[in-house]
Specification:
- The chain is of the alpha+beta class and 427 residues long.
- The protein has 2 domains: 158 residues, no CATH class; 141 residues.
- The strands form 2 sheets. A 5-stranded mixed beta sheet has the order 1-5-3-8-7, covered by helices on one side. Strands 4-2-6 form a 3-stranded antiparallel beta sheet, with no helix packed on it.
- Keywords: Membrane, Transmembrane, Transmembrane helix.
């Protein structure tokens, strides 16, 4: 029962990234609030306010209907325009930058809330309009509710103005890159801080019992706290073999356990793995390296030819790599100085190769971009504390110079690149 509840909570948590989640919640709130106002109107709230503050109550049926009808039609037009602007943003980001950016743009919380404000006001106005009855001697027009619709309309117009400002900012590649970088940076810093608390080494898991994945998909998240509780409760150690964020095929080795355990415990461990068909940076910082690299490569394509964007992307990659070299290739979770959970991730060698390989393929013809990449690698070599990391960086420098020598026609440009490397090594 607890395992099913955890899965339901995870699915509910993922709903927040869907474009329709918050608008739906706010729209339901609009319907509920309209019914509350209907109840208050039946209790005579408009009649009561009319006696003390008549200027706050609209007491003409035709005026009220005209106001509500105008609000409904106008807001529907505004909502259609806003939705069209979002589609333009997504189409431009996909064609000019990278299709992988779309999930992050769709899950923009501010735009979801603005869409919800529109729906709230439209639904509220529709219900109040239906509530207005033909005039009669004993009938009191819901004037106070109509007055609130004016307030909600003004609020919607303010949200629309903010939306225009926000969408103009979101469409800029600098802001897109910064948002990707910021999410990954925060995630990396948290991991590095946790790693500093570990004072034990990784146990040997070669002879541990292996268990395969039951389904395929992107291995996005895992509940380490629940796994830690299972490990302590059953006196076992667990190693997560599959890399977080990678695509896990069915029947591939998913995790290992240091001893044989009951099937009920195995099922509890399986229930803590969450697979999906998409990737999010909040769940996996490695996706930021992939997205920023794709933006840099796409910007250097003949159809776009935007070296400035590539340089900005490389700057962000440089900052992320400087953080990454402060981290080990594995994550360890301990309890009372005993390692209970081992989390494998993409090692530094594979990570930097996956970033540099496409950049070397598409960008080595541009001497400015090559120099920028050399600056990145040289800074990384200075920041690296492990000799293995430094060896990996030196290897990438050699590969970059070889590709640059082949692609750069002007020998003087290439000699300046070699001169930069020589001066950096002397310093």
């Amino acid at each position: 029962m607890k395992d099913k509840l955890l899965k339901l909570l995870y699915k509910a948590y993922n709903l927040k990234d869907k474009i329709a989640f918050f608008p739906s919640i706010i729209a339901i709130a609009g319907a509920i609030f309209a019914y509350i106002m209907m109840y208050l109107e039946n209790k005579g709230i408009s009649k009561y306010i009319l006696e003390f503050l008549p200027e706050l109550v609209i007491n003409d049926t035709e005026t009220a209907r005209a106001i509500l009808t105008t609000f409904i039609g106008g807001l529907i037009s505004i909502m259609v325009f806003s939705f069209s602007m979002v589609m333009i943003l997504l189409n431009q980001a996909s064609s000019n930058f990278s299709p992988r950016l779309l999930p992050g743009l769709i899950s923009n919380r501010r735009h979801q809330i603005i869409l919800g404000i529109y729906l709230f006001t439209i639904i509220y106005c529709i219900f109040i309009l239906v509530f207005i009855e033909p005039s009669g001697k004993k009938y009191q027009l819901p004037g106070f509710s109509v007055l609130l619709s004016i307030f909600f309309m003004v609020n919607s117009l303010a949200a629309f103005i903010y939306f225009i400002h926000s969408i103009s900012q979101e469409i800029q590649i600098n802001n897109i890159l910064y948002n990707i970088f910021s999410s990954s940076e925060n995630r990396l810093k948290k991991i590095i801080e946790k790693e500093k608390e570990i004072d034990s080494s990784k146990p040997n898991s070669n002879n541990w019992t292996t268990y395969n994945a039951k389904s395929s998909g992107y291995f996005n998240t895992i509940s380490t706290e629940t796994l830690l509780h299972i490990a302590k409760e059953n006196n076992i150690k667990i190693e997560i073999v599959s890399n977080k964020g990678s695509y896990c095929n069915e029947d591939a080795i998913l995790f290992k356990v240091d001893k044989k355990i009951d099937n009920s415990i195995i099922e509890k461990i399986y229930s803590n793995f969450n697979f999906s068909k998409s990737e999010l940076i909040d769940d996996n910082y490695l996706l930021a390296f992939k997205q920023i690299t794709e933006v840099a490569v796409k910007s250097m394509s003949p159809g776009i030819n935007d070296p400035g964007t590539a340089i900005n992307a490389i700057d962000y990659l440089s900052q992320l790599f400087i953080l990454r070299v402060q981290k080990q290739d594995i994550d360890l979770v301990q309890e009372k100085n005993t390692i209970l959970i081992i989390l494998n991730s993409v090692n530094f060698k594979d990570l930097i190769y996956n970033v540099m390989a496409p950049l070397r393929t598409y960008c080595t013809h541009d001497v400015i971009i090559v120099r920028k990449l050399l600056v990145l690698l040289e800074n990384l070599k200075k920041k690296a504390t492990l000799n293995t990391y430094k060896e990996v960086v030196n290897n990438e420098i050699d590969l970059l110079l070889k590709d640059a020598e082949r692609e750069i026609a002007n020998k003087n440009d290439f000699n300046k690149l070699k001169e930069y490397i020589s001066n950096s090594n002397k310093n």
